[in-house]
Specification:
The structure is a homodimer of 306-residue chains. Chain A is globular, with a radius of gyration of 18 Å. Chain A folds into two domains: 4-37 and 136-302, Rossmann fold, CATH 3.40.50.1100; 40-130, Rossmann fold (3-Layer(aba) Sandwich). In chain A, strand 4, helix 4 (91-99) and strand 5 (103-107) form a beta-alpha-beta unit. With 306 residues, the first copy, chain A, is of the alpha/beta class. A six-stranded mixed sheet of chain A has the order 1-2-10-7-8-9. In chain A, strands 5-4-3-6 form a four-stranded parallel sheet, sandwiched between helices. Chain A has helices at residues 18-21, 40-52, 65-75, 91-99, 111-125, 136-149, 167-179, 195-202, 225-234, 243-257, 267-274, 276-279, 295-302; strands at 11-13, 24-29, 57-61, 80-86, 103-107, 128-130, 158-162, 184-190, 237-241, 283-288.
């Protein structure tokens, strides 16, 4: 059901990154597709099921990537797509959502307020609410990444996955632990948005009052209990990284891999930068999960005025 | 014989590029692999044949991408690889050639001098000279791009191909004209390195005294007669573009597709920018053939000091 344009994404070793990181580095590149993130895998599942069931509309809250992907998948199946996002979201993401013909509603608050508002719209309009990470399709979409990762014998011993709501971590993690249990699954979250990591560590939902990170794609405050349960089954570790490490990792990917990535996509390498001893002589793989950035902002991050 | 890491590269529509170009735009992304260019397809063929025949060494002249790819393909098969390049070549390309364990010899002149020197080394050492565009493997490697382009029914009506020595143009072009003859094959070269385009137009080899372009990957002066013969069979047109258009196209790919590309990879979109009427309402596909740039230079191109 997933358009092939989202499948079999590039997966390759980036030796040019290795001297700076002190380990072998492979990447799974989820940005070379029409929506520049991995989210199309999941929205293709949702939209095709809705179209088959004769539904006409769907709504989701999104930091931008899920909304863009749902707009793309919904448009080609004649679905009315509504996306609720924070008015502070990355402009490039909001522009693409609009350009793809979705209805975009902005809330004057963060992603958690957008989630509330999307739920209200779904109830009022009687349409499907797509809840990222809670709805199985979003995890199953990510799980197809996992299947591609472990095809053949994986050369890596550790996979580093950005952790936000948990769809990617649980989707990829389940497959990896099932098919290649010897591979370590390490989730990485910013210190400025640590709710799910704290929850994983204490084995119960911990919420936070606010978030403070440039990694917009993973900045949630209210972990979903069912997703935490899943995460507890599959994650070998969950680590928190500083903003400076995220920026350094983005800069490394630019300098040595020629890749523009959004902050969430740099979390894996940020974790290596913060704990080089742990990963020394390992072969890590990280998923480059998105590249939707506001370019002027991106350029300020990676080229700070001296 | 080609490592799968080079095959089935991403091919997708980039709607965000379309308002600026006035036509439908798809790209074939040949940069998401360990050598960041399409050249690995051809060097995999050469290196595997050499290894099978028990050869131990190979030499080539290169602006950098062929050399890097040959170094990669040769290393994993135990071949001694020598690359001859201009000392003015892109530093990042030269660094990667060295990092991959090849012997790098620099000449104090342009690519044509490097070709002479590589031929001399091959003769003196009695080893295989890999001649880009003349040696069929380099065209066959590129031809595998063509096979992927026309799989299923191509949605594009025009393919825009960077033209240098001619391996990519003839390799891709032969397959496209064979399997999808209705698709227009348009080769694009910089006005500052027009030898092959002039030759194609006059149907005989025309050489130039010098080159003057930032598109280092296509800056040749001495077209190979056999390659010209091939090009005459498959190209529907060959056009020349200004340096300014190449830079504008690079900037568009950065702004709207999130892609860092080398100048040669922007030639196709430069051609659209220079003749929007011709391509209006067409669906063009262009091959993003490489992303190996010196980043400070790249940043000067796309962000000129105001």
């Amino acid at each position: 059901m997933i358009d092939p344009v989202f499948l079999d994404s590039p997966q390759y070793r980036c030796e040019a990154l290795e001297p700076a990181l002190g380990c072998e580095v492979s990447i799974k590149l989820e940005t070379a597709n029409p929506v520049r993130s991995f989210k199309g895998r999941g929205t293709e599942l949702v939209a095709s099921q809705l179209a088959e069931a004769g539904s006409r509309a769907v709504v989701c809250a999104s930091a931008g990537n899920l909304g863009q992907a749902l707009a793309w998948s919904g448009r080609r199946r004649g679905l009315d797509v509504t996306v609720v996002a924070s008015r502070f979201a990355t402009k490039a993401k909001l522009e693409r959502i609009r350009a793809l013909g979705a209805k975009l509603e902005l809330v004057d608050g963060d992603h958690e307020l957008a989630r509330e508002r999307a739920a209200a719209i779904a109830q009022y309009d009687g349409i499907r609410l797509l809840e990222d990470s809670l709805d199985l399709e979003t995890c199953e979409g990510a799980a197809t990444i996992g299947l591609e990762l472990v095809e053949g014998t994986p050369e890596f011993d550790t996979v580093l996955i950005a952790l936000g709501g948990g769809a990617m971590a649980t989707g990829v993690g389940h497959v990896v632990k099932e098919l290649a249990p010897e591979v370590d699954v390490v989730c990485v979250q910013p210190l400025g948005a640590p709710a799910m990591t704290h929850s994983w560590r204490r084995r119960r939902v911990i919420t936070t009052e606010s978030t403070n990170t440039i990694a917009d794609g993973v900045a949630g405050r209210f972990p979903i209990p069912e997703v935490l349960d899943d995460l507890l089954l599959i994650a070998d570790d969950a680590v928190l990284v500083h903003e400076e490490s995220i920026v350094t990792a983005m800069r490394l990917l630019l300098d040595h891999a020629g890749l523009i990535v959004e902050p969430s996509a740099a979390l894996g390498l940020a974790a290596v930068l913060e704990d080089p001893t742990r990963f020394a002589n390992h072969h890590i793989l990280t998923i480059i999960c998105g590249s939707n950035v506001d370019l002027p902002t991106y350029q300020r991050w990676v080229n700070p005025p001296s």
